[in-house]
Write a structure and sequence with these properties.
The complex is a heterodimer. Chain A is mainly α. Chain A has a domain of about 120 residues: Orthogonal Bundle (Recoverin, domain 1). Helices cover about 50% and strands about 5% of the residues of chain A. The longest helix of chain A is centred in the middle third of the chain and has 19 residues. Chain A is globular and about 60 Å long. Chain B has a two-stranded antiparallel sheet with strand order 1-2. Chain B is globular. Classes of the chains: A mainly alpha, B mainly alpha. The interface between A and B is large, with 72 and 70 residues.
């Protein structure tokens, strides 16, 4: 069970957090998330990285490290901070989760654009580990290697070539008139937006927090 | 060979029986053909008009047409339809704009006109689209995920449609101006039940050309299939009711109960027969040749038994096929599997062709009763009610979907509801006691023609115009692909993190039960992993044989994989991609990026065989590990021993031989090729050249070696523009042609070693 009183006390705050981004969320969903938080944290107030790393379902995910890091990344807290936290409380947890809320269908175009930007920003932060505002070739290479790491048969060279190819592509679409000796620094956020502009982020990158399988959740044991 | 001959023989036999059975089922207005059963019409042995005087010489040359008349005509029909099919594809441009069904109907119309003018009778209508429904196994188990939705649309949607159309038509009938006042409510409902049935054949034809996104496709297709249950019930109910003077509420309840019996009964029978089939095939390891026979016979049996009890035969056959697909496939040999698949596709193709064909023919040759008002309103209502129905139903179901159907999807759903052969057959078998039967028939044909032609032809540009979410068969940019995949992983991770209820929860439960109990009973050596490992073993052996077979030549060029020189950092990029490179990159990406739980199955078009890519993936990984474990040995000699090479072949070739290029990249650095073959690759870029090396070795390549830079000079001159920009690239993954795209399983000539 969760700490009901504590929860109710802060409920308005939680709703405010999530609502601030034009998302609508019901109390039911916040409650689900809170329950989940409690389970992950073992009924403490804060979650540490180890708690998240213990989730078995994530073991198969090639980018689990990045995902977990994203939770502790200050940049995802909408507060213009950089660096990373060691532990997060429920509010920060919620803040990160709020990136994945589906957009209200009544939202205007601007609101949708803002939401989309946020989601893209989240993704961008996942790549840009040193927080210099651009994704360099090395960072990209790391990403691609991790993605392909599951197959076990891909050589690092191939992964690198692919990363190179991808960078080239970005360069050629975004900076079409580069002189032969120009140095393409890396993918900036604008370029990033540009490449992904065809994709419908709003629907792809959203989860409905409706169907929580709270009955079968035990710490570490999930139904999937 | 023997197997194929055997199965075709049985199949033809089945076909004929089918025709005749169906022919005799309803009052289909034909034929002398339907009447006679045996192909052996008793020949009136050369009419002996002068019996006593004439000395009968042994006839040297005789003709006896009536003897072969029936099978002959049937064969001719089938051939004609197949020729038509060939013809369409010769001129490709037509098929882009006009779906096949339209063309077939047009030809049918022409032929019908011809026949009409010579006063011939058209042959019996085939309602054998039953076989067509084997297409379903291709969409198989992932169906379960959308099962409820499909059911929802199918059942509730069809009900809504029939009742809506029926009532509005009845309202129209009240208007004296149209002169159809004699049609009462029951008859109207009956008619509307007929025309609200969406037809899978037509839909499949159209949708697959348009390549809408899979969700949409699955829902529509599934709806078509399952609404058979509803249609049959409604039809029976209403036709029964139409003959009754008075309807009472208790009849309505009975009708509802009947519906459940029909639907669920059909499924139950199907599953039962599926299990029996699975059980039987457990013991067929010694009699491989007749395995396909079991499959066909059992499914047909399911169909017949369902017909016997007047429950939904299509449901029966669907569930039978599903069950069989799952269990039987593990028991039978690969070759039987292929045989089955091919036969089914062939029969499905034929029957689909024939149906539309006959539609055209019969249109011309029957007497029509035309009533402008009624027919036009029928069209109108059919359209309107379907649209409304979809609208309402999606509103209700959208909250339960992760990706809700947007307006465009709904439009696609509504517009894609084509009527076809099912309605036609039902209309034809209307009992004659209905006064206005001809009108109904005419109206049905009108609706079918309208939907197939107009909607069928216009759906493609419309969908493109409103930009419904399409399946992404086109290559996107690499970045998009990578990032999309990243997004999916992220989403999966977040879902796992917050303990999202797995939608496959029940499926998991079932799988556990399945593994523990069912498989032990139904599958020979019911090991849990048998399928993949068994498949692997078979493939491995076949690989070996294949190498031996290809020793004589036709071994292609090695891929000359030249990657970016590591010295060059991102600053000095002056490269350009060839289209082939991009494709290869995409292949690597798609084949290697960890595939997370797919929500929909990749639909690959009705003309393509199912994709065994997952097993192949696993196969390749195993190859890689084997190679790696053998690596220390290869250090000793640059001439890699032949047995070693055997392991490094990728899995069997498929229809997508081009994509196999990616597999070559999984090589170790140190596996080199024979000295002879190596130099010859340097001159090959981007073009699949074939070098017939006398050795059976497939030359493998080193990746990313600096030595291969010299090839860029030639490359630059040759570089074709891809429109990607002004950069030119050093890296070219040339299109390596792997040894002939042989069908994976049709390798050697039988006798022994049936795997």
């Amino acid at each position: 069970m969760y700490n009901y009183r504590y929860y109710c006390k802060n409920l308005h705050k939680y709703i405010h957090i999530v609502d601030v981004c034009f998302f609508t969320v019901s109390q039911e969903q916040i409650k689900n998330l809170y329950q989940r938080f409690q389970q992950l944290s073992g009924n403490h107030e804060k979650i540490s990285r180890d708690d998240l790393e213990r989730i078995p379902a994530l073991n198969n995910n090639p980018i689990r490290k990045q995902i977990i890091t994203a939770f502790f990344d200050k940049r995802n807290q909408h507060q213009n901070d950089v660096g990373s936290l060691d532990e997060i409380g429920f509010e920060q947890f919620l803040m990160v989760m709020s990136h994945f809320r589906p957009v209200n269908s009544t939202a205007t175009e601007e609101e949708k654009a803002i939401v989309r930007k946020q989601k893209l920003r989240f993704l961008f932060n996942m790549h840009d580990t040193d927080n210099d505002g651009i994704i360099t070739l090395d960072e990209y290479r790391t990403v691609v290697e991790e993605l392909l790491s599951q197959s076990g048969a891909i050589e690092t060279e191939v992964a690198r070539s692919i990363a190179d190819a991808a960078m080239l592509e970005v360069a050629s679409t975004n900076v079409p008139h580069m002189a032969p000796d120009d140095f393409y620094e890396g993918i900036t956020f604008e370029h990033f937006e540009q490449i992904l502009k065809g994709i419908e982020m709003e629907s792809r990158m959203s989860i409905r927090f409706l169907d929580m399988n709270t009955a079968t959740m035990r710490c570490g044991k999930l139904s999937s | 060979m023997l197997t194929e001959g055997g199965s075709t023989g049985t199949l033809l036999f089945i076909c004929m029986i089918l025709i005749l059975l169906h022919g005799s089922r309803g009052e289909i207005p034909s034929k002398p053909i339907a009447a006679t059963i045996l192909p052996f019409v008793k020949p009136n042995d050369g009419v002996q008009t002068y019996p006593e005087d004439q000395k009968n010489n042994l006839p040297v040359f005789t003709m006896n047409y009536p003897r072969i008349q029936i099978p002959f005509e049937i064969t001719l029909w089938v051939l004609l339809a197949s020729f038509a099919k060939i013809g369409f594809h010769v001129y490709h441009k037509i098929t882009i704009w006009v779906p096949e069904s339209c063309l077939l109907i047009s030809i049918g119309l022409i032929v019908g006109a011809i026949m009409h003018s010579v006063h011939e009778e058209p042959p019996a209508v085939l309602t054998s689209n039953v076989f067509f429904l084997y297409m379903l196994p291709l969409i198989v188990l992932d169906f379960v995920a959308v099962f409820m939705q499909v059911f929802w649309f199918a059942v509730v949607g069809t009900l809504w449609n029939s009742i809506g159309i029926g009532i509005s038509l009845f309202a129209i009938c009240q208007i004296p101006a149209f002169g159809v006042q004699d049609i009462n409510l029951q008859e109207n409902l009956l008619f509307s039940a007929i025309i609200s049935a969406v037809d899978p054949v037509a839909v499949l034809n159209v949708f697959e050309d348009v390549s809408v996104n899979e969700q949409l496709y699955i829902v529509v297709f599934g709806e078509c299939l399952f609404n058979d249950a509803v249609t049959v019930v409604l039809y029976n109910m209403f036709s029964f009711v139409a003959e009754m003077p008075v309807v009472e509420p208790v009849d309505v309840f009975i009708g509802v109960a009947r519906f459940f019996i029909v639907g669920l009964g059909g499924m139950a029978f199907g599953i039962l027969f599926g299990f029996v089939a699975a059980f039987t095939t457990r013991f067929t390891s010694k009699v491989r040749e007749i395995e396909p026979l079991f499959v066909f016979m059992y499914s047909y049996l399911a169909y017949l038994v369902a017909e016997l009890f007047a429950i939904s035969s299509i449901m029966a056959i669907i569930t039978c096929a599903l069950t069989m697909k799952y269990y039987v496939e593990e028991n039978v040999s690969q070759r039987s599997c292929t045989t089955i698949r091919h036969v089914i596709k062939m029969v499905a193709s034929i029957s689909e062709t024939l149906i539309f064909f006959f539609l055209g023919v019969v249109t011309i040759t029957t007497d029509h009763e035309w009533n402008w008002g009624y027919i036009l309103f029928t069209l109108l209502f059919a359209f309107v009610w379907r649209g409304l129905g979809i609208l309402v139903l999606t509103q209700i179901i959208n909250p339960f979907r992760t990706i809700p159907f947007n307006m465009k999807d709904q439009f696609g759903l509504a517009y894609g509801g084509l009527r076809g052969a099912v309605s036609f057959a039902l209309a034809f078998t209307l009992p004659d006691t209905i006064g206005r039967k001809q009108l109904f028939v005419t109206a049905t044909i009108a609706v079918i023609l309208f939907t197939v032609f107009l909607q069928g032809i216009s759906i493609r540009p419309l969908i493109e115009f409103i930009n419904v979410r399409r399946t992404n068969r086109n290559l996107e940019t690499i970045n998009v692909e990578i990032h999309c995949r990243l997004m999916e992983h992220t989403m999966a991770g977040i879902e796992d993190l917050c303990g999202q209820w797995s939608r496959f929860y029940w499926k998991d439960k079932f799988m556990k039960f399945n593994n523990r109990i069912l498989r032990k009973i139904l599958i020979r050596d019911g090991r849990a992993e048998s399928s993949i490992v068994a498949l692997y073993k078979k493939l491995e052996l076949q690989n070996a044989m294949e190498i031996l077979d290809t020793a004589s030549g036709n071994i292609s060029a090695a891929p000359s994989i030249v990657s970016l020189s590591p010295n060059v950092d991102s600053s000095k990029l002056q490269k350009k991609f060839l289209a082939a490179d991009l494709r290869n990159i995409h292949d690597i990406l798609s084949k290697n990026m960890y595939k997370i739980r797919e929500r929909t199955v990749a639909y690959r078009g009705k003309h393509a065989l199912p994709n065994d890519s997952q097993t192949r993936e696993i196969l390749i990984r195993r190859h890689a590990t084997i190679r790696r474990s053998l690596r220390p040995r290869s250090f000793q000699s640059s001439n890699v021993p032949r047995t070693h090479k055997y392991f490094s072949l990728p899995a069997g070739k498929s229809l997508e031989s081009r994509f196999d290029a990616a597999r070559w990249h999984y090589t170790d650095d140190h596996e080199t090729l024979s000295e002879v073959a190596y130099p010859s690759q340097r001159s090959r870029f981007g073009k699949p050249a074939r070098s017939s090396s006398s050795k059976a070795m497939i030359p493998l390549h080193r990746l990313g070696t600096l030595e291969e830079v010299p090839s860029t000079d030639v490359l630059n001159e040759e570089s074709s523009s891809t429109g990607q920009g002004v950069f030119r690239t050093n890296s070219s993954y040339s299109d390596s042609r792997v040894p002939h795209p042989r069908r994976l399983y049709s390798l050697f000539d039988d006798n022994n070693s049936e795997l």
